[in-house]
């Protein structure tokens, strides 16, 4: 088990350490990283389980970013699909928590909290992933409704979600300023799953199609043209939590590598007795701590009501790239065992790869950081 002295860092309050201890004990009893071939069934079951146990209440309403991050890190250490199930309930409903009307909150958030309704966040398109301004999906006002046409892709929980928060061009202004956000129930006529997408670390994913999908204006989140603001506010919360999930994967890989290195006999000594192994373990541990500091700085800063666009991007880059390196090093230390299908570090190797891409690829985060740095730089005379 990784050293948990980080819970004593000044970023946290006593309630956060207590939350982590309680969840870790619960997950050890109830969560397993081996599931059946049908990930849809497994995800539905996990959402219900997390809801019934009361953990999903932390994903909705008044957002405590540090709590969300600790929950994601802890669940990721136990099972990647459990982390995914929690995160998507939060990501898919966060826009409602932040921008929804009282009626929308009452209609959706209690069901999300109980694990009775599965949420999804539909932003990316075939030609508009990182470049939100290139969005083509459009919603046209028609009386008291909007009519939605277009496609979304790479949508997590696509195919099992009960509702989607969908972003569409409404034309109030050019580019990103002419986008609005809507709640679309999965059963709405004209909303369909066009394709299921299969990944190296399986979870429900789909391409969605909207064909003259009529939704009430009351389903809009925020003001017309405010969709980009809605999306970025949501991502500022959950981009930081992606870093936390990466930490969970990295800590599990490190624990496994450290235990293996101290037990594996080689040439009359253990693998840990070799200086090359010691150097690798030192690099892994240092990287994890550096990533954790950036992650929980960003989470703490957001909980103080401060802007975290740059800090969240720094956390996501560092944690996901470090976790990839830590897990790759763990695979190497296990040797042949590390590439056996189903071995814990082999599973982690597949789990971590997508985190460097989704919710903003590493390269996009670098651009965000540079943009913020240049914006903050004093003007030169």
Mean pLDDT over the full residue set = 93
Please list the strands of the largest sheet in the order they lie side by side. 1-4-5-8
**How many DSSP H or I helices?**
10
Unreliable sequence segments: none
Strand content: 15-25%
In N-to-C order, the SSE pattern is: HHHHHEEEEEEEEHEEHHHH
- The backbone outline, from C-alpha atoms, is globular
By secondary-structure content and strand pairing, the structural class works out as: alpha+beta
What's the main sheet like?
A: 4 strands, mixed
Number of strands: 10
Q: Approximately how much helix is present in the residues?
A: 40-55%
The termini sit apart by 55 Å
Radius of gyration: 21 Å
Describe the structure.
It is built from 10 helices and 10 strands. Strand 9 and strand 10 form a beta hairpin. The chain has helices at residues 14-30, 39-52, 65-78, 80-99, 102-114, 227-263, 275-303, 309-334, 344-353, 362-376; strands spanning 119-122, 138-142, 145-156, 163-169, 179-185, 191-196, 205-216, 220-221, 265-266, 269-270. The radius of gyration is 21 Å and the shape is globular. Helix 1 (14-30) runs parallel beside helix 3, helix 3 packs across helix 6 and helix 6 (227-263) runs antiparallel to helix 7. The protein has 381 residues and is α+β, with helices and mostly antiparallel strands. The termini are far apart. The chain has a 4-stranded mixed sheet. A 4-stranded antiparallel sheet has the order 2-3-7-6, with no helix packed on it. Strands 9-10 form a two-stranded antiparallel sheet.
């Amino acid at each position: 088990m990784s050293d948990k002295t980080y819970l004593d860092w000044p970023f946290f309050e006593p309630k956060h350490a207590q939350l982590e201890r309680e969840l870790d004990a619960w997950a050890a009893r109830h969560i397993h990283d081996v599931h059946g071939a049908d990930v849809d069934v497994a995800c539905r079951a996990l959402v219900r389980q997390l809801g019934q146990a009361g953990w999903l209440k932390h994903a909705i309403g008044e957002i405590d970013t540090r709590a969300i991050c600790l929950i994601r890190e802890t669940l990721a250490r136990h099972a990647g699909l459990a982390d995914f199930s929690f995160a998507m309930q939060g990501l898919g409903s966060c826009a409602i928590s932040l921008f929804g009307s009282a009626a929308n909150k009452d209609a959706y958030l209690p069901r999300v909290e109980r694990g009775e309704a599965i949420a999804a966040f539909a932003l990316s398109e075939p030609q508009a992933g990182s470049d939100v301004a290139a969005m083509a999906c459009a919603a046209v006002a028609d009386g008291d409704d909007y009519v939605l046409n277009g496609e979304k892709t790479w949508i997590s929980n696509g195919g099992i979600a009960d509702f989607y928060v969908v972003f569409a061009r409404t034309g109030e202004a050019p580019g990103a300023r002419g986008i609005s956000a809507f709640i679309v129930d999965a059963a709405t006529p004209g909303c369909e799953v066009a394709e299921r997408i299969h990944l190296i670390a399986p979870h429900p994913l789909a391409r969605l199609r909207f064909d003259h999908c009529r939704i009430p204006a009351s389903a809009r989140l925020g003001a017309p043209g405010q969709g980009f603001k809605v999306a970025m506010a949501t991502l500022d919360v959950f981009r930081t939590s992606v870093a936390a999930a990466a930490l969970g994967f990295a800590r599990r890989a490190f624990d496994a590598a450290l235990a293996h290195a101290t037990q594996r006999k080689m040439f009359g000594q253990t693998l840990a007795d070799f200086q090359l192994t010691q150097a690798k373990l030192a690099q892994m541990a240092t990287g994890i701590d550096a990533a954790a500091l950036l992650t929980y700085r960003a989470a703490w800063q957001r909980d103080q009501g401060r802007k975290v666009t740059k800090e969240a991007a720094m956390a996501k880059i560092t944690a996901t790239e470090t976790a990839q390196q830590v897990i790759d090093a763990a695979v190497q230390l296990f040797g042949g065992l590390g590439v056996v299908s189903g071995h814990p570090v082999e599973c982690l190797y597949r789990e971590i790869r997508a985190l460097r891409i989704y919710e903003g690829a590493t390269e996009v985060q670098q651009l965000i950081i540079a943009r913020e740095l240049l914006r903050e730089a004093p003007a030169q005379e």
